[in-house]
Write a structure and sequence with these properties.
Distance between the termini: 40 Å
Order of helices and strands: HEEEHEHEEEHHHEHEHHEHEEE
Number of helices: 10
CATH architecture of the largest domain: Alpha-Beta Complex
Structural class: alpha+beta
Bound molecules: adenosine-5'-diphosphate, magnesium ion
Shape: globular
Number of domains: 2
Helix content: 25-40%
Radius of gyration: 20 Å
CATH superfamily of the largest domain: PurM-like C-terminal domain
Strand content: 25-35%
CATH class of the largest domain: Alpha Beta
Largest sheet: 7 strands, mixed
Length: about 325
């Protein structure tokens, strides 16, 4: 199968066909019609074999996750997903692998009505790069720089589940089969909080998605907003399985390993009533408060300061 046949067979046929795509796959560029009065939100994320996933990873979940992490970035800006590009580096044209990869990717694309409009394909070590585009009304994006003193700090869902599943997969934690099955969903099939992010327009002041761990990602919000925060360990939302892990092994999985793809955002007290009306199915927890004093203060279950010995995931740390 040559490159053009591969593109035609796997990528040109797809489930989503949007009215705002004047020309999709097949020309030198895609031609797209962004709505008037909206900002185009653009993001990209790379998944590199051996760095972000194990070489024998299931291609269905890889296809899902590669798109999901990009939709999660759009969600963190409050943007509505519209289009994406796929840059694929493949060691070989492995048709069964591509079939499965596309199934995972296109199933998620269909759920969010996001259309694949182009990309590039080359031979080399397995790498998946997706670039996603979405819309957000001008001035309504949820910026990392928007947190203000007195805002409450919230997170969606629960933290640490994906990390504990990864520790088990790497042989560093022993879970029962049932517990692993429950958590591995969070690692391999993250659900981007797109509806939640869009619902937070006009309510949240600042937001980020948690990909590198709460401490690192909330840290980015604090730095860009030039504020600090106090958070409470007993308010961090944990699944029962993760809570058990934290009890035995400490807070690193929940606070610093990342791969959560939950939203962390700040809300002024005048908007907390509106926030409570939103009723997110994934759950929502207030974990602390923005303060004027820079940097992050963590308070443990007994009210004492807690000083973590770990930070967030950083590909270039110490190298
Ligand atoms: P060019 O030589 O201009 O880069 P290509 O032959 O690489 O063109 O691509 C032909 C068409 O197929 C373009 O519209 C491009 O966007 C699309 N395309 C190539 N690779 C992919 C891919 N992995 N996913 C989606 N579309 C792709
Ligand atoms: Mg090309």
């Amino acid at each position: 199968m040559n490159e053009l046949e591969l593109i035609r067979h796997f990528f040109a046929r797809q489930p989503v066909s949007r009215a705002d795509v004047a020309a999709g796959i097949g020309d030198d560029c895609a031609l797209l019609r962004p709505p008037a009065g909206q900002s185009l939100a653009v993001t990209s994320d790379l998944l590199v074999s051996g760095v972000h996933f194990l070489p024998d990873a299931d291609p269905v979940s890889l296809g899902h996750k590669a798109l999901a992490v990009n939709l999660s970035d759009l969600a963190a800006m409050g943007a509505e997903p519209a289009w994406f590009l796929l840059n694929l580096v493949l060691p070989e044209a492995d048709a069964p692998w591509l079939e499965r990869f596309c199934r995972g990717m296109f199933d998620l694309a269909r759920q969010y009505d996001v259309q694949l409009v182009g990309g590039d394909t080359s031979r080399g070590p397995l790498t998946i790069g997706i670039e996603a585009h979405g819309f957000v009304p001008e001035g309504a994006a949820l910026r990392r720089s928007g947190a203000r003193v007195g805002d409450r700090v919230y997170v969606t869902g629960t933290l640490g589940d994906a990390a504990v599943a990864l520790l088990h997969r790497l042989g560093k934690e022993r879970l029962s089969e049932a517990d692993f099955a429950a958590l591995v969903e969070r690692l391999d099939w993250p659900v981007p909080r797109v509806r939640e992010g869009m619902a937070l327009r006009g309510i949240a002041t600042g937001a980020i998605d948690i990909s590198d761990g709460l401490l690192a990602d909330l840290g980015h919000v604090l730095e860009m907003s030039r504020v600090g925060a106090r958070i409470f360990l007993d308010k961090i939302p944990l699944s029962p399985i993760c809570r058990e892990h934290v009890g035995k092994s400490g807070w690193e999985a929940a606070l610093a390993m990342g791969d959560d793809y939950e939203l962390c955002f700040t809300v002024p007290t005048k908007n907390t009533g509106a926030l409570e009306k939103l009723q997110f199915a994934c759950g929502l927890h207030c974990i602390g408060e923005i303060e004027a004093e820079p940097s992050l203060r963590i308070v443990d279950e007994s009210g004492k300061p807690y000083h973590p010995t770990f930070t967030g995931h950083d590909h270039f740390a110490g190298k």
